Structure formats: C-alpha cells, structure tokens
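Supplementary Note 3. Input sequence used for the single-chain structure prediction.
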Amino acid sequence: MARLPRLSGKEVIEIFKRDGWFVDRIEGSHHILIKPGHEATLSVPVHGRQEIKLGLLKRLIRDAGMTNKRFTELS
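The predicted structure, written as discrete structure tokens, is reproduced below.
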C-alpha cells in the first residue's frame, strides 16, 4: 500500500485538480470541489499551511473514487 504524504489543503486541491476535479465554490475556509460525471463533492479545508489529517485525507481519496496509490502517483 502506498504511504500517503502529509500535505496542506492547497496541496491536496492541486492533486485533485490533476485528476479532473475543480473548485466550484469556497464556503468559509472550505473549498468545494466537483468533477463532471461524478455525483460526490469534496470539501477540503484550507487553513494556511496546516496539514490535512490522515483520516480526512483517506476519506477524501475514497469519496473521489481514487486509490491511495493513484493519489500518490499524482502528487
């Protein structure tokens, strides 16, 4: 299993953009990402350089329909 990197919210968003996601809107400090043809939305918190916690990162990857390996390949 691929080891997940420790990333900030902005870095996570850039990786999801490489997979076809884009920022639909910003609600407070959360960036809402959508992908054409995909029902789920992703809510990524952006708090400066603060790292996304591992559990949240895993959930975002799962909700995006990606594997940990695919995510690390895009990073």
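The beta strands are 22-27, 30-34, 42-45. The mean pLDDT is 94.
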